[in-house]
Amino acid sequence: MTVAASRVTEKLALFGGPKAVATDPGDTFAWPIVTDEDERAVVEVLRHGDMSGTNVTRQFEAEFAAWQGLPFALAHCNGTAAVQAAMFAVGVGRGDEVICPSMTYWASGLPALTLGATVVWADIQPETLCLDPGDLKKRITERTKAIVVVHYSGYPADMDEIMAVAAPGGIKVIEDVSHAHGGIYKGRKLGTIAHVAAMSMMSGKAMPIGEGGMLATADREIYERAVAWGHYERHGDSLTLAELKRFAGLPMGAVKHRLNQLASAMGRVQLRHYDRRSAEIGKAMDYFWDCLEGTPGVRAHRPPRDSGSRMGAWYNARGLYVADELAGLPLGRFCEALAAEGFATKPGANFPLHLHPLLTEADIYGDGQPTVVAQAARDVRAPAGSLPVSEAIDKFCFGVPWFKHHRPEIIDEYVLAVKKAAAHADELR
């Protein structure tokens, strides 16, 4: 970090001092990056009038599958549809249970309800913010059909342990890679380790195509079941399994998951540039955290450098907070100081889903009891206190800037903001 050490001791902006973040960041945070190449690709589809076809989408799928290192990829209208298709494709159905971390976006787990199944919420590890294999073991029953693993904020989950927990019961594992496109777990690309991967590609994600999703797998049967579920116009040349071919012509799920080809065209362009842009993000984020190494109260949310694992483009970037190192200073107060310095942030991450009334009270389908209970043989609800790490997320986790470019002169100011807040912890208390 090039900022003079004397600046760290300046009066906090919260108390009338100068802000640490004072430079216009320009396009440092602008996303997605849309160029003439994207525009030309989209306009070409518009001019051909083939927005609802599949020719461009199939090209996108082939290129994505090759990039992912898998034989099959199937584009969807959004990531939620891809997750639902993945659940159906691995056999999730009426009365089944799907285990999912409570700390995630709702689309990781709620599609199970549309299949007549229910969701069992599990806790996370405080260091990774990903599914805790130890807690996962406690949630498995004879009704567990699938486990959804979320590589939260780009951090690779402990896939070896999770796959080992799932294997004895023949439980299928779905990787939700919506936060982590291109991430690496012990040398393997995220989305290639479980039985199937599903991911969002909406405009805010690390791989943005406007709005869309992708399912990827090495399993032909899983791929064909996903096609049969919501891609009826592709049955003729995609289905080989006799049990599916006899129903060809109509979607088994009565849903239409086709991706608009404007998004497919943009996706092809974004994919071509993804590795380079992702590497730039990684360089910037690593610089940010390297500069903060040893700062009391804060920890990087990233795998150890010698682990063989790598963050997946740092979507929804987080930092970890250790209040004990700042004599118990509450994270909320720490974030208040950061915000005053020009470092926009707040404590926490997603709301723990197991506490939401939709997952505890709502009778969605008119069964006379909460849907998550009605679709199970038992009360699967997780009461307050049952998932302590997820419930404490706003005490030890906070948002950090998602730098899209490695610009030390900009990043240094955000580093300074954190160092100032930590250095003045006594005053903040």
Tell me about this structure.
This protein has 429 residues and is an alpha/beta fold. The protein folds into 2 domains: 5-33 and 273-349 and 391-428, Aspartate Aminotransferase, domain 1 (Alpha-Beta Complex), CATH 3.90.1150.10; 36-269, Aspartate Aminotransferase, domain 2. The chain is 36% helix and 12% strand. It contains 17 helices and 12 strands. It is globular. The relative contact order is 0.17.
* Rg result: 23 Å
Give the helices and strands as they follow along the chain: HHHEHEHEHEHEEEEEHHHHEEHHHHEHH
Provide the CATH top-level class of the largest domain: Alpha Beta
User: How many helical elements?
Assistant: 17
Give the proportion of residues in helices. Answer: 25-40%
Shape: globular
Mean pLDDT: 97
CATH topology of the largest domain: Aspartate Aminotransferase, domain 2
Give a topology summary.
Blueprint: H1 5-8, H2 36-48, H3 55-68, E1 72-76, H4 79-89, E2 97-101, H5 111-114, E3 118-122, H6 133-139, E4 144-150, H7 159-166, E5 172-176, E6 184-185, E7 188-189, E8 196-200, E9 213-217, H8 220-230, H9 235-238, H10 242-245, H11 261-291, E10 298-300, E11 318-321, H12 331-340, H13 371-374, H14 388-391, H15 393-396, E12 397-399, H16 408-423, H17 425-428
Parallel strand pairs: 2-3, 2-4, 4-5, 5-8
Antiparallel strand pairs: 1-9, 6-7, 8-9, 10-11, 11-12
Helix pairs in contact: 2-11, 3-11, 4-8, 11-16
Keywords:
alpha/beta; three-stranded antiparallel sheet; 429 residues; Aspartate Aminotransferase, domain 1; 17 helices; 2 domains
